# Entry
Amino acid sequence: MINKVAEYLSREGFYFYEKSFRKFSEDIYIFVVKKANEKSIGLLTQGDFTLSSPYFTERKYLKEIGYYLNLYPLTYENFVILKDKFSIAPSPCNKKVSFGMGDRLGLVTAAHIRAVENYDVFPVLAQQSPRELMKTHRSFKEAILKAILGVLEEGYTGKFGADADHIKDENYLMEAIDAGYTMYTLDLSDMLVKLSDYTESQLKEKAEKLNITSKRIIERFKGKKFVMPTKEAFTVSEEELYKSALTYEKAMDFVEKVYGILKDKVKNFDLEISIDEGDKDTTVEDHIFVAEYLHEKGIDFWSLAPKFPGEFQKAIDYIGDVDKFAVELKKHQFLSREFGGYKLSLHSGSDKFSIYKVFSEITEGEFHIKTSGTSWLQAVNLIFEKDKELFKELYQIALYNLEESKKAYKVLIDKKDFPENINLEDSQIVSKPEIKQLFHISYGVLLEERKKQIFEVLNKYEEEHYEFVRKNIENHFKEIFSK
Ligand SMILES: O=C(O)[C@@H](O)[C@@H](O)[C@H](O)C(=O)CO
# Structure
């Protein structure tokens, strides 16, 4: 049957994704095809199941196999019809290890799926932040649709998640809920009170005005000594607890509000609390305050992303003292068990090869990691390999707009570190940390200026693009799961 369909569609000028062909029900088969860089879903039916905006205005009857054939765009409307009948929608995590793979271009979900194939990992395939959506001019719905298309293309039948990442306001929250996301990452960084902006007496005054929940937590935990299973111990400082309460109390209101909305509108979801993008390393007091406050309010969160010591810059390895990282991680892991068992989450998780093993060991193989830019960089690597002229143009555009791109991301690089003319003969150039950081943060302006050309190369060499992405994510897993 599959051959007959493939033959017919190839005569019509379509590329047929063989792996996508699967039986949905007794009388419905589904598959994915591509023509002129546009992917569509195909249905073979015997009954009267149809979707909107068919490619063939009349259903083609394929006499030899006795099925009607039609092709459809994967619009949101069509996705809703499909997901109500078949299980193709994202779901909350059901595994100890979960791994976020942002796909800024909406092209490589199939490669992400191939990468997780040999690992016991729950893939979070549609992971997108409003920052990325703005820079790529996409919506939460579009991001989820591209992920679903990849799932169908690869014939993947396992579970997967969709992460509305870095949620800081209600507008994006509602958009993500409407689109059907299953993981919500609340980024509290902009809501944290910067204590250095206040005088001692102002802080004292603020401390007196802390709410009853905060005061109760301070009373309960001040001076408390925790002994970890390793027999290492730490004592909770009252002064630090006050600081934590002053820093985080306001942000807790946001979490409470969002939780209420999510409980009301989404049945099952994973909630991540992210405090990693602030300037300050998360202390044990911060962790205790946030976790206890949320629990007192009845908020059941799934994971917490603290700010660990060291630098977690985009696109490059961890900068810092791995031993110090391990010491702090142990305390956070201990607290995550002590206070009810949620996961620790590692953000800016792309390319942090020197800490994966220790992260996986200390968290006892139960954690979440987020990556995104690392997959976009594979697109850049492919362009470097296939179209040097385009790469050179992208480099120049990125360099010219560096200051603007730096506004959204914390990176080390400075314009003076880069030559005007890049040496295209040097095959190692794309592995240089400063080049990786430059491209990592420049995707917005590059898509703005050269989207058509970028997509042409990536579509032309789709399989090679997938291979770059698969290998790169697999390299992450090799380190994460290394014994
Ligand atoms: O670029 C973004 O906005 C996001 O993909 C990241 O900040 C994400 O949260 C992440 O940590 C991926 O490494």
User: Anything to note?
Assistant: Residues 386-467 form one domain. The longest helix spans residues 238-265.
